[in-house]
Amino acid sequence: MDPFSAEGELLTLYNAFHQGQYATALDFDTSSLSKSNSTPARILKLRAQIASGDARGALASIQNENEPDFTAVQAFAQYTLGDTSTATEHVENLVETASDNATVQILCGTILQGTGRTEEALSLITLTTQIHLSQNRTDLALKEVSAARKWAQDNLLVNIAEAWAGMRVGGESYQSAFYVFEELAQTPSTTAPKSLISQSLAELHLGRLPEAEAALSQALEKEPRDIEAVANAVVLGTIMGKRAEVEERMAELKGRGHPLLEDLEEKGKAFDVAAAKYAARAA
Questions:
Q1: What CA–CA distances, in Å, run from 36 to 10, 43, 59, 154, 227?
Q2: CB of 107 within 8 A of CB of 72?
Q3: In this model, does residue 253 exceed pLDDT 80?
Q4: Contact criterion met (CB below 8 Å) for 49 and 214
Q5: Which string of b and e fits 245-257 if b means at least 16 CB within 10 Å?
């Protein structure tokens, strides 16, 4: 039996992790699990620990483990802590020796994509949809989701991936994506900052700014320091003309670092270059 199916032992843990309910995942009791599911369960809990901000603790707990699954987690923890060099060394070895391992595919693919080695990451198929979207190849992302639908009709992760693709397609797909994120965000057993942020983004694209603000406010109430919530508050506040709030949130981002800041800096430089060309003509 598939441990992640509706009847499987790991369904609750699997869903909690992918819904961003990391505390629930960490509290999941694994004592009664079958031996074959003990490692997958431990991997999910380690990933939840890293996602919760305790990468050092996760790394310390598995330093003596040599199996590919745990080596991949070690690499991901090191990458999260900023030790890209060591993480990349682990990844290169794992891709050569254990590329068929699901944990290796997921975590090493994330590291490769995050360090700009996109072509290598594409070989790790579990991240193909997300990678295609990051490359603006929505057509290929949709193909991946469509193929996954044939064998994983009711899989939560496939639903989320389809919603990601729908957000990129736009139009009526915004509404379909909204339904997925709203169900996750507003169901008491599955609500978490990540799902609330996703709902807010869908509301924003649908032009429902007050609703987007309400969902994002819920996320910030649950986790005031969630950096993705703060970054999205900057975007939404800018659109809604809330200058003081935007300045406050930007100051928080600058103190912690976020890709949005890099993107804004790049766009600012591009604007300055373009403006300089026009200034030269005017002179």
A1: 11, 13, 23, 23, 36
A2: yes
A3: yes
A4: no
A5: ebeebbebbeeee
The position carrying tokens 């639903």 is 159
User: Tell me, what amino acid is at 7?
Assistant: E
CA distance 203 to 213: 9
pLDDT recorded at residue 126: 46
Predicted confidence (pLDDT) at residue 227 exceeds the cutoff of 50: yes
CA 68 to chain centre: 22
Alpha helix stretches (DSSP H) within the chain = 11-18, 22-27, 35-51, 55-61, 68-80, 84-97, 102-114, 118-122, 128-134, 138-149, 156-169, 172-186, 193-205, 209-222, 227-239, 243-256, 259-282
Cα dihedral 51, 56, 58, 64 in deg (nearest 10): 150
What whole-number distance in Å separates Cα of residue 256 and Cα of residue 43?
A: 27
User: Is the separation of the CB atoms in 120 and 95 below 8 Å?
Assistant: yes
Cα angle 133, 23, 61 (rounded to 5 degrees) comes to 90
Phi, psi angles (nearest 5°) of residue 23? -65, -40
Q: What is the token pair recorded at 123? A: 């070989």
